[in-house]
């Protein structure tokens, strides 16, 4: 996967995130609401993971290393970063 592939994946995830946020959702604990919330959370996590991978690849390239050596970090690690 190269940077362009990652950017395309990011664009697709951003579009899905926007679509999910635009869908009217009734507040509550219904199964449909829970599925929607879970999917939105997963899309957000996937986005964070993609951005992290892209930053790793760019940092490796800037340091003269092979960007292909960058690996996607686990979501638990990416989500644990301090902002």
From TrEMBL:
It holds the Pfam family DUF2630. Residues 18-37, 58-83 are annotated as: Disordered. This is DUF2630 domain-containing protein. It comes from Arthrobacter agilis.
């Amino acid at each position: 996967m190269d940077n362009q592939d990652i950017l395309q994946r990011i664009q697709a995830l951003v579009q899905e995130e926007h679509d999910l946020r635009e869908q009217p959702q009734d507040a509550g604990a219904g199964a449909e609401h829970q599925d929607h919330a879970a999917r939105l959370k997963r899309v957000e996590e996937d986005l964070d993971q993609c951005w992290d991978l892209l930053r790793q690849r760019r940092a490796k390239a800037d340091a003269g290393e092979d960007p292909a050596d960058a690996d996607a970090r686990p979501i638990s690690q990416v989500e644990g970063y301090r902002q």
